[in-house]
Amino acid sequence: MRLRSLRAILALIGCAAAAYTVLGRRWQLRWGATDQEVDGALPGDGLIASPHLTATRAITVRTSADRVWPWIAQLGQGRAGFYSYDFLENLVGCEIHSSDRIVPEWQRRQVGDEVKLHPEVALGVAVLEPGRSLVLRGGVPMGRTPPPYDFTWAFVLRAGPDEATRLLVRERYRYTRPWAPLLVESVEVFSFIMTQKMLRGIRDRARRTPAAPDGVAM
């Protein structure tokens, strides 16, 4: 009887895994994005010409892009955080504290700057069009082992319907080690959880922004 129960449990796990592979994976890799947005080019795509994995996620923010951009400009550990689940990020020592206000001194960005994910881990600003796009590039090393992939993380603002703004976030991975997919695919589920919360966090903060704060370039 126990053997039969074990087989049933394993069968359910197998079915769940298959369902995720067929349905869930595709859904979470394009959460909130239209077919046109998924297939269309975004700033930074040229940095990784032939990615092994791409995720494009999006949300509509019912306000203008100049109210959304300041929240993107100040992303990063030691700055405004990532507007996601801080407690999950802090379980691995990220020391993230997401801000609910726009800080003028955090608005200055330029290509080559670091955007920290963790006190000891950062991505570099690879592409920057103030008010429109921010593209980060790099990877997370595994101890002394370099990242087994090349990675870009793009934040793009586009005009949406009814004077709203579409916020798109795209991740692109190019594997450099045979075992990289095992790492990236498992991390990507966690990335989805954090990204959809971040998108909602930016949306909600931008909608509450009454006007450009003093010292903040819009």
Compose a concise summary of this entry:
The protein is α+β, with helices and mostly antiparallel strands and 218 residues long.
Structural overview:
It is a single chain. With 218 residues, the protein is of the alpha+beta class. It folds into two domains: 1-30; 31-208, Alpha-D-Glucose-1,6-Bisphosphate, Chain A, domain 4, CATH 3.30.530. Helices cover 35% and strands 23% of the residues. The chain has five helices and six strands. It has helices at residues 2-29, 35-39, 65-73, 86-90, 180-208; strands at 53-61, 114-118, 121-129, 133-138, 149-159, 165-175. It has a six-stranded antiparallel β-sheet, covered by helices on one side. A hairpin with a 2-residue loop joins strand 2 and strand 3 (121-129). The longest helix has 29 residues, at 180-208. It is globular. Residues 1-21 have low confidence and may be disordered.
